[in-house]
Amino acid sequence: MKILLRFIALLILVNILFPKNINAQQEQAYELTKLEIEGNNFLDAEDIFLVLASQQSPNWFSQFVHSFTSFGEDALYFDSLLIPSDLEILKRYYRHNGFFSPTFSYKYELDKENKEASLTYFVNEGEQIYFNNFKVSGIEKISGEFIYYINELTKTDTTIRFSGDLVQSKSDQIYNYLRDKGFMLASVETPVIIVDTMKNKVDVQIEVKTGRRYIIDELRVQRTGENKELVEDELLKTIVNVDTGDYYNFYDLRNGQVRLFRTGLFTNVLVSGVIADTVADKVPLLISADIGTLYEISPEIIMNNENQVFNLGLGIGFTRKNFLGDARKFTVKASSAAQDISEFLSNPQISDTTIFGYADARVIIEQPILFGKSINTRLENYVTLQKRKNEYNQTLYGTKLSFDFELPQFVYATGLQTYFNWENSKSIFTENYVRSIFIDAGYSDSVTSEATNRIKQDTNFEQQVTNTVLGVQLSANKTNNLIFPTRGYAISILAEDGNSIRRLFDNLTKTKFEGPQYYKLIFTSTFYLPVYASPENSFGGKFKVGYIRTYRGDNSQIPLNQRLFSGGSNSVRGWISRDLASSEVSNIGVGSFDDLQQLLLSDISPGGFFTIEGSIETRNRLIGKVGSALFIDFGNTWNSYKNFQWNTVAIAAGFGLRYYSDFVPFRVDFGFKVYDPQNRKSFLKKSFFDIMQFHLGIGEAF
User: Fold this and answer.
1) What is the pLDDT of residues 170-206, one digit of tens each?
2) Which of 91, 117, 248, 633 has its CA 20 to 30 A from that of 302?
3) Looking at domain 215-291, which of 3.30.420.10, 3.40.50.300, 3.40.1160.10, 3.10.20.310 is its CATH number?
4) What is the pLDDT of residue 25?
5) Which residues of 398-426 are buried (b: 16+ CB within 10 A; e: fewer)?
């Protein structure tokens, strides 16, 4: 007995002094520099690597950066104890993707001199197993239309390989559909998979427990927070927009909850059925809301890509929530931003010739309900001072009324907005800019001086235009992720009519309107292709076409901020904002400010009336939240679609870096003029700084 006790004590002492298995310790000292899989003919290796327990060590640069920052990753080491886990993971992963009889083996090598290890898994995938049919049980007692929809939902192409993800997706769709049709307590059991290895087919059986179909018989409101007495119960019920007598619908409840959050009144909200108080097929609905402060002062640092450039500045706003009731918000705010913040801070004057930026003041009234419907309505009055560096100053003041509609659940479009905008703009051009326009157009110095002096006497380089716009924007987003999409597409169609309302008003009041009438159409589409398996990498493109047609009057009187332009951080990145247009200024007479406007229509910064743009971009993660991008952009702006020629399309290419914060990506792009229609000399023969353009941006380029 004493010998046994001594032996046990010796074992305990060895475990204390040498807590790790010697072989494991040796293996863990080897960095796993190579992880491979062979024989995977149908499944992508990158997808497989994501699920394995063993992971390849990051490259030396990532390790170096991680040694003194929070970026990058530390070295990873080989552990033979993870191999059984990897083999089991491989088996489950292949089964999940339609291979029910694969076999696996492995091999690893240790480089004792360099302390490196390589690990290779060998796969014999076997036969692919295809779907045969789905069978849903437990729905026999519900309405025939529900049964029909569920059966339609579970129809599957029998020529595609079995996928566990597809089975789970259909189970989730059945569950969500039932909950949206009143079956509040519906549940879907784990699908049963029956494999016929002789026919290489799979039958899927899904058992559903529908439970009762519930009707909402009562709306209860529970208010908490410091200002709970200042918000009425009826307001919360109106915003949620669910009535007694309606069938329970989880989608409607979730939308009601979102609408409550959007008002900004509440710090916490929950809309749910009270299961404990159900009676037969009746369920009360509880709207719980915590009401926060009704007054808000919000200083802000402005960082945006407005007008295709990176703007950086400061702003401050005051908001009174629940203004005059009905969850209405009253906001007053002011902001100022510049492209070059160092110049702006050293001399913050909007009239200074070194400043390129804007100052803005707005008064906004916004409400979530209109005529008892969920239509977010916004009335905005504004004054904006814009400064185009060394070119012109512009003062804008106007009013905009917009309506943002909430669309039904099963429609193609995901967004619909209509608006009316009345705006007065006054532009004051610099004398040097006016001179440069005539010189660039090929006029002599004497003609330039004479024309410039004449225009100065007649107009003092000023132009004032009043414009009314009636617009509608329809959009559909079918991407898999709003922040970093890797699959799917999105489209947007913008249609505007300029000055028809103004002409109608002037006709009714017997006044004379001499401005142009026009319409604007812009179509934008983005798409993301399944080039990469990893959700951290993306390959996509953008195509945009815009057209403005004047059907009455002179298009030279269309305000500059209503025209189309190319170039900038979200456009063709080899050029600065509004820097792209075609040279179309020959045979234009000079003698009045209208002639100057005709020149401004052409290849000068204010843009034109027809544009085409496109981009192709690959986005790849490098280290942690740091990523890279390679892109090709093309496009330009013309006075008319009739002036479009392929040899006038500008082409840029470049690269960029991304930092993917928890809120929005920040980016730096370096664009290079590969083909410049204004200077067709090979870019290889131009200086580096003549062809390179640097951009800062918030969010992706598209």
Assistant:
1) 999 999 999 999 999 999 999 999 998 888 999 999 9
2) 633
3) 3.10.20.310
4) 40
5) bebebbbeeeeeeeeeeebbbbebbbebe
